[in-house]
Write a structure and sequence with these properties.
This protein has helices spanning 12-23, 67-77, 91-96, 98-123, 156-175, 197-209, 230-242, 259-269, 298-304, 312-335; strands spanning 3-7, 27-32, 57-61, 81-84, 128-134, 178-184, 187-188, 216-218, 224-225, 228-229, 248-251, 257-258, 278-280. It has 348 residues and is of the alpha/beta class. Helix content is 41%, strand content 15%. The protein has ten helices and 13 strands. Helix 6 (197-209) crosses helix 10. The protein has two domains: 3-184, NAD(P)-binding Rossmann-like Domain (Rossmann fold), CATH 3.40.50.720; 197-224 and 256-282 and 313-346, UDP-galactose 4-epimerase, domain 1. Bound molecules: NADP nicotinamide-adenine-dinucleotide phosphate and ligand G4F.
Length: 348
């Protein structure tokens, strides 16, 4: 049985990746942060009591800012594969917390690579490492972006991801480590964090439809993104680590839409006129924006045989259906006199 160690398992991608690996009979070890409130909602359905002989998902407390615990966990778990998905992943928030973002996203990656390198030297046991790179690294470089497009990062998040990317490449070249670098374009799902633009839109539109909210405030509607489905993208991560040699791959759909087009598609699906409910609020603008991302994933298609299964319309439908159901449940609870907390739609 193969063993995988996953940072960021409580996030959107971590939860889909854990599902995929469990379906492939891996033993999965996830690193979770201690939090005053529960942060394991996305993986609750996968979790079993560790005393259960059938349990194959194990959770360990840890943090990318704590190199000692990363070393200890590598030693304890002895993984075959490490997926480094943990990150402060919100671009706008990285302007407010640049130091923390760099510590987790850039130095955290370095700490984990160092721990894997030492583990390799001590045990001789090969470990394959996946680094979660981002299309944000291309930033101001115009589309279509490929593996050969120069990086031009436009936020502390993107600069940190560029550093993490090059740490990975350097450990591959310097020590012969198996470090595979994914450069993934935006990918979404019903499990997407509520302050990323797609989920912010689908949640708000569904709440407007159910009469729970009147308005939605957004930032730059002209930005273009290449949006895919997170479930398809974790399959690509896994394929990167099954390939014979460690390499860098762009993972994208090759189709881009503006934020305005995403809004239009969502409101149209709900039979609503978006212009009556959506207003622009400059607080959601970024000091430096990434205007246009559209990836060319020809290499992943040819070498890994990967291609996305879920297109733009199907993604919008999936997210709207999910959030409509949540809004209906909220309405029912409110009608029965309960006051459910509605989380954070005004942030991010
Ligand atoms: P996400 O939903 O924001 O999840 C981030 C995960 O990282 C969470 O599990 C979070 O834990 C964890 N984390 C945050 N700070 C940490 C720390 N100091 N130590 C350890 N773990 C920490 O992000 P995602 O969308 O799943 O993305 C996964 C990875 O891919 C990230 O590295 C992201 O930057 C990158 N990426 C994402 C996309 C995309 O479109 N989704 C595209 C390209 C690259 P908590 O649950 O406790 O907060
Ligand atoms: O949904 P977003 O916050 O995603 P962004 O900045 O593209 O970053 C995401 O994708 C990256 C891959 O390219 C990941 F690396 C990163 O971790 C994250 O998952 O914003 C998308 C676009 C931006 O241009 C933003 O300015 O939507 C625009 N936008 C307009 N109004 C808004 C809003 N974004 C947010 N979050 N909130 C708004 O109200």
């Amino acid at each position: 049985m193969k063993k995988a160690l996953v940072t960021g398992i409580t996030g959107q991608d971590g939860s889909y990746l854990a599902e995929l690996l469990l379906s492939k009979d891996y033993q999965v070890h996830g690193i979770i942060r201690r939090s005053a409130s529960f942060n394991t909602d996305r993986i609750e359905h996968l979790y079993r009591d560790p005393h259960d002989p059938e349990a194959r998902l194990f959770l360990h407390y840890g943090d990318l800012t704590d190199g000692t615990c990363l070393r200890r966990l590598l030693h304890r778990v002895q993984p075959d594969e490490v997926y480094n998905l943990g990150a402060q992943s919100h671009v706008k928030i990285s302007f407010e917390q640049p130091g923390y973002t760099a510590d987790v996203d850039a130095l955290g990656t370095l700490r984990l690579l160092e721990a894997v390198h030492d583990h390799l030297s001590a045990t001789g046991k090969p470990v394959r490492f996946y680094q979660a790179g981002s299309s944000e690294m291309f930033g101001a470089s115009p589309p279509p972006q490929t593996e050969n497009t120069p990086f031009y990062p436009r936020s502390p998040y993107a600069v940190s991801k560029v550093a993490a990317h090059w740490f990975g490449v350097n450990y591959r070249e310097a020590y012969g480590m198996f470090v595979a670098n994914g450069i993934l374009f935006n990918h979404e799902s019903p499990r997407r964090g509520e302050t990323f633009v797609t989920r912010k839109i689908t949640r708000a539109a569904c709440r407007i439809k159910e009469g729970l909210q009147d308005q939605l405030f957004l930032g730059n509607l002209d930005a273009k993104r290449d949006w895919g489905f997170a479930g398809d993208y974790v399959e690509a991560m896994w394929r990167l680590l099954q390939h014979d040699t460690p390499d860098t791959f762009v993972v994208a759909t090759g189709e881009a839409h503006t934020v305005r087009e995403f809004v239009e598609a969502v409101f149209e699906k709900l039979g609503l006129d978006w212009k009556k409910s959506v207003a622009v609020d400059k607080r959601y603008f970024r000091p430096t924006e990434v205007d246009s991302l559209c990836g060319d994933a020809t290499k992943a298609r040819k070498v890994l045989g990967w291609k996305p299964q879920v297109g733009f319309d199907a993604l919008v439908t999936m997210m709207v259906d999910h959030d409509r159901e949540l809004a209906r449940q909220e309405k029912t609870l409110r009608a029965a006199g309960h006051e459910p907390t509605t989380r954070g739609s005004t942030h991010g």
